[in-house]
From TrEMBL, chain A:
Transmembrane segments: 6-28, 35-54, 66-87
Keywords per UniProt: Membrane, Transmembrane, Transmembrane helix
Protein name stated in the entry: Multisubunit sodium/proton antiporter MrpC subunit
One term under GO cellular component: membrane
Pfam family, one: Oxidored_q2
Compartments where located: Membrane
UniProtKB/TrEMBL annotation, chain B:
Chain ranges of the MrpA C-terminal/MbhE domain: 103-175
UniProtKB keywords: Cell membrane, Membrane, Transmembrane, Transmembrane helix
Domain Na+/H+ antiporter MnhB subunit-related protein as annotated: residue spans: 192-295
Membrane topology: Multi-pass membrane protein
Protein name stated in the entry: Multisubunit sodium/proton antiporter MrpB subunit
Transmembrane segments: 29-47, 54-75, 192-212, 218-235, 247-264, 284-304
Similarity remark: Belongs to the CPA3 antiporters (TC 2.A.63) subunit B family.
UniProtKB/TrEMBL annotation, chain C:
Lineage: Bacteria, Pseudomonadati, Pseudomonadota, Alphaproteobacteria, Rhodobacterales
Coiled-coil zones: none
Signal peptide: none
Native species: Rhodovulum marinum
Transmembrane annotation, as ranges: 6-25, 37-56, 62-84
Protein name (record): Multisubunit sodium/proton antiporter MrpG subunit
Top-rank lineage group of the source organism: Bacteria
Keyword Aminoacyl-tRNA synthetase among record annotations: no
NCBIfam families for this protein: CPA3_mnhG_phaG
TrEMBL record, chain D:
MF GO annotations: sodium:proton antiporter activity
Family matches, as InterPro entries: MrpF/PhaF-like
Organism expressing this protein natively: Rhodovulum marinum
One cellular component (GO) term of this entry: plasma membrane
Protein's recorded name: Multisubunit sodium/proton antiporter MrpF subunit
Membrane topology, as annotated: Multi-pass membrane protein
Subcellular location: Cell membrane
Domain of life: Bacteria
Length: 99, 319, 99, 86
């Protein structure tokens, strides 16, 4: 049985966030919502990684997953910015043809 | 300790609840605000997991700049300003079968991740022993910075390249897209900016410097300085003009260029790429970090601003 | 002694946050809520920071805590002003005060 | 000392979660943004308490950055909302 440490708590929460985010990515109707869902999905994966890196108190956590997740956050914000630019562009194209 | 356990359970539950609420929120603005709050709670969770570096990156980028980016896009979708209602994209409702398949797929992927997480041995030493062994050669004393800038520097170089690629794509996609500029924010804000912006710049510099020995470093510092630039753009202290383009391009590329040059420069004389000579490792890492910070700050601000400054847009600014 | 005082300040600060939240939930319009929360969170954070600064092991930490408080106070005042101005311009007219 | 800090932390979290109701219900965008600001301040306070509780001074930097960046979202909201307005 798994001990109920803070790593387990946040790890399981991360799994739930990942699942919710993935469902949002697949099922959300609007583009903006889908993009936010993708961000949630990435956050959940990050939580799982950081939970896996946790060590019980006297020991310090594994720094490698920490570095990976920081990289992930920065890559995610770049991807989000690109997706948002595409959303803005698509919106302009759609509203232009409607007129 | 039981109180702290209750706190952890409550925080974890609210993180999951907020993720669900974010996806279910009807109003797009409410969804974005919920996402911003989600980022704050996530950062607290990371603080509880003894990951201050990640918490720092999350509050700077996840809760801060992503929120501003999303709000800016929503303002565009609503036709110029946030307060103008309507214009939200309406889409066809998905049918039950599709939703069932989606749920199944998401569930399967989550189960796979869950098995990988729960199946792996918990709370046992992973790579930290290797990191600790190699620390004396890294040139810094903070393990996360050592991993980012030395041991796994390839990843970090690629990450800077991703940021560069993002700004190139955004400039291309937004070409010719005109937008009404933001109004002046008034004297109270100007007073605030006069105090806050220098403080924020100092905080950014401090984060960069402290990164060698404590949580902090190029990304966090870059995000803080990027936020300063975003505030400057919003209050129109900074007005991008076509004349700034060569400077902007140079700044975007500077981080990647220095990083790659150092990586290749140290590679001769029997050394691998990125194998810094231990005696100069700290200097080289600080040099890279400083340039990368400036690049990241400029890139994030450009990603927020969106389109490339062109003559047409500035001509419209006076109208 | 100092430690007890510090903890008491922190507990009091937390109560101010609770008060602010109650105000945020109960008050009828955006201006009243603004009033409640700028008072409460300003005071609450001030007390929490004061308590943390009392317990700080060295001057550098105390300085950073002070900086956090000053910055939040400035940002909160400016933010409150900006939101109020915006709500005044964009929103429905301010409620009449009934005699 | 530390059990008391944990209780304070939980109270702050409960207060933050209460404020979340205003974010969800609104009614206006200003209400939502304002509540987010209060929640941000609560999160700053929680980070400061956590720094003490876990004896991690680095969390003070997290609190500082959170304070700096929360202001950006708020200013972005006001500036972008007033873009068309009048």
């Amino acid at each position: 049985m798994i001990a109920l440490s803070q790593a387990t708590i946040y790890g399981l929460a991360g799994l739930a966030v990942f699942g919710l985010g993935l469902m949002g990515v697949l099922g959300a109707a609007e583009r903006l919502r889908r993009l936010i869902a993708l961000n949630l999905c990435a956050a959940g994966a990050g939580m799982v990684l950081i939970a896996a890196a946790w060590r019980s108190p006297p020991a310090v956590p594994d720094p490698v997953p920490h570095a990976l997740v920081i990289t992930g956050i920065v890559v995610m914000v770049s991807a989000t910015a690109v997706a948002l630019a595409l959303i803005r562009r698509l919106h302009s194209l759609e509203t232009d043809t409607d007129d | 300790m039981t109180v702290l356990l209750a706190f952890d359970l409550l925080l974890a539950a609210s993180i999951v609840g907020l993720a669900a609420a974010t996806l279910l929120m009807r109003d797009a603005f409410a969804m974005i605000v919920a996402f911003i709050v989600f980022g704050m709670l996530l950062a607290l969770g990371w603080a509880r997991l003894v990951a201050p570096d990640v918490a720092l990156a999350e509050v700077a980028i996840g809760a801060g700049l992503s929120g501003a980016l999303l709000l800016r896009t929503l303002a565009h979708l609503r036709g110029g300003g946030l307060s103008a209602q309507g214009g939200a994209s309406v889409s066809a409702p998905t049918n039950g079968a599709t939703q069932g398949i989606n749920a199944l797929l998401a569930g399967l992927a989550t189960c796979a991740l869950g098995l990988a997480y729960l199946g792996a041995p918990q709370n046992v030493p992973g790579l930290e022993a290797h990191v600790t062994d190699a620390m004396p050669e890294s040139g810094v004393t903070h393990p996360v910075t050592a991993v980012l800038l030395n041991f796994r520097a390839y990843d970090t170089l690629m990450e800077v390249v991703v940021l560069l690629a993002a700004v190139i794509v955004v400039w291309q996609v937004e070409r010719g897209l005109a937008e009404t500029p933001a109004p002046a924010l008034g004297t109270v804000y100007q007073g605030f900016a006069r105090v806050a912006l220098p403080v924020a710049v100092i905080a950014g510099g401090y984060l960069l410097w402290i990164g060698a020995e404590a949580p902090g470093g190029a990304f966090q510092a870059g995000a803080v300085l990027g936020a300063v630039a975003v505030l400057g753009l919003l209050s129109r202290h900074v007005r991008p003009a076509p004349a700034h383009r060569p400077l902007a391009r140079g700044t975007f590329v500077a981080g990647t260029a220095i990083f790659a040059l150092v990586a290749l420069g140290v590679s001769g004389a029997g050394r691998e790429t990125f194998e810094y000579p231990p005696a100069h490792a700290k200097t080289l890492i600080l040099l890279i970090e400083a340039m990368v910070t400036v690049s990241i700050a400029a890139t994030l601000a450009a990603l927020f601003h969106g389109r490339e400054p062109v003559t047409v847009a500035t001509g419209k600014e006076t109208t | 002694m100092l430690e007890i005082a510090g903890t008491a300040f922190m507990a009091l600060g937390a109560l101010f946050f609770v008060a602010g939240t109650i105000g945020l939930l109960r008050f009828p319009d955006v201006f009243c809520r603004l009033h409640a929360l700028t008072k409460a969170d300003g005071m609450g954070l001030a007390l929490v920071c004061l308590s943390a600064a009392i317990g700080a092991p060295d001057g550098g930490e105390a300085l950073r805590i002070l900086l956090i408080w000053v910055f939040v106070a400035l940002a909160s005042a400016t933010g409150g002003h900006l939101v109020a101005r915006h709500a005044r311009r964009a929103g429905p007219p301010v409620r009449e005060v009934r005699p | 000392m530390s059990p008391v800090l944990a209780v304070i932390l939980t109270v702050l979290l409960a207060s933050l979660l209460g404020g979340l109701w205003r974010v969800i219900r609104g009614p206006s965008d200003s209400d939502r943004m304002l509540s987010a600001q209060l929640l941000g301040t609560a999160a700053v306070a929680m980070t400061v308490v956590l720094a003490r509780l876990q004896d991690m001074p680095a969390l003070l930097d997290v609190a500082l950055v959170l304070a700096l960046l929360a202001a950006v979202t708020l200013v972005a909201y006001v500036a972008l909302s007033e873009r068309r307005g009048r």
